[in-house]
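#struct-help
A.M.: can someone run this one for me? Single chain, 235 residues.
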Amino acid sequence: MTYAIVDCRMTADIRSAVSEFADEIIELPPHPQLASPVASHPDMLLWIYGKHIVTYRDYAKLAREPFCKLSALGYEIIYTEDSPSAEYPKDVSLNCAVVGNRLICNEKYLSKAIKLIAAEHGLELINVKQGYAKCSTVTVGENAIITQDPSIYKAATAHGIDALKISDGGVALRGYDTGFIGGASGALGAHVIFCGNLSLHADGEKISTFCQTHGKQALSLSHSPLYDYGTVFFV
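D.P.: on it. C-alpha cells below:
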C-alpha cells in the first residue's frame, strides 16, 4: 500500500487529487512552536530516508496517531533533540532533500540525528546557503532536481546533478510573499505532482519538459495557482 503524508490543512480538492496516488492519507497536525503558515508542513516536521523517520520528540507525542501508524508500517521513528521555534534557523533542522545518494542541506543547521544516518548510509552532504533546502527542491529523480534557489542550483550542478533553475515566485503561501516550488510538489514513481496548476507558473512548460527528459510526467492537481503545502511525502 502507498500512503501520502500531507499538511492537515490541505484543501479538499488537492487532498482528493493526492488520494488518487495513495491508498491512504496521513495528515500531520501543526506544531505549536513553528510559524502558523508552515506549522503542519511535512518538510518542516520530519525527514524520511529508507525506513528511518526523524522528527522532533515533542511533536511525535503531539502527533501520536500519524507516528503510531508509521511505526506500524515498519518505520523507525528517530528523535532529534533539537527544539524548533518560529525563528529561522531554529525551524530548519529537518529541512533537507535526498537526491540519490546525496543530501542537499544547510549543514550548519542540520539535525545531528540526520547527520548520523547520512554517515551510516554513505550519503554525501551537499552544503548550501539555503536553510529551507527541501522546501526549495523538487526531487525529479536520483540525479535531477528543480529549484528556484541559486545556491542549491550552483551546488547541485557542481556535484553532477542535472538541475533546472526556475524563476522566483509563482507559488503561494499565506502569510508570506511567496512559497517554495519544492513545497508545492511530491514525487511517486513515474510522476511528479504539483499542488495547483503548473501551467500558471511562468516556467511551467520548462518544468514539464525537464520532467519528461528524466522519464517523469509532471501532473497538476488543481486549476488554482501552485500552493506550498510543505511537500507531499509518499511512503
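A.M.: thanks! The longest strand covers residues 3-7.
D.P.: also worth noting: The first helix runs from residue 12 to 18.
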